[in-house]
Amino acid sequence: MKRVKQLVAVIITCALSPIASASVLNDISNEQLLFCANVSGVHGASIESRTAFRNYLVTERGYKYSKLVDSERAYLSGMTEEQQQKAKKAYQDQCADTGNQLFFKGY
Q1: How many domains does the chain contain in total?
Q2: Which three-class secondary structure state does DSSP give residue 30?
Q3: What start and end residues bound the annotated signal peptide (predicted)?
Q4: Is the pTM of this model over 0.85?
């Protein structure tokens, strides 16, 4: 039931906000996209966004999947609970909207 509520909230949010255009996505740096892919791997962040960031980086930016996995593993290794909370907040503040937009664009 919780997942259904989250999905409905995401759909409503996306319906009320403009979907990211290709030019807007092109303006986001690889480093920022990689950061978002990494923080979306933190427990409690959106798995759909994590997948969307990874798929976008592989499909549109030429990243190798293995590089993304290694980067995320290095980012998440040894994180304390406090660091995970900060990463989750960073995801919500900086990455959630873009991740949802990528997801609904089919990435």
Answers
A1: 1
A2: helix
A3: 1-22
A4: no
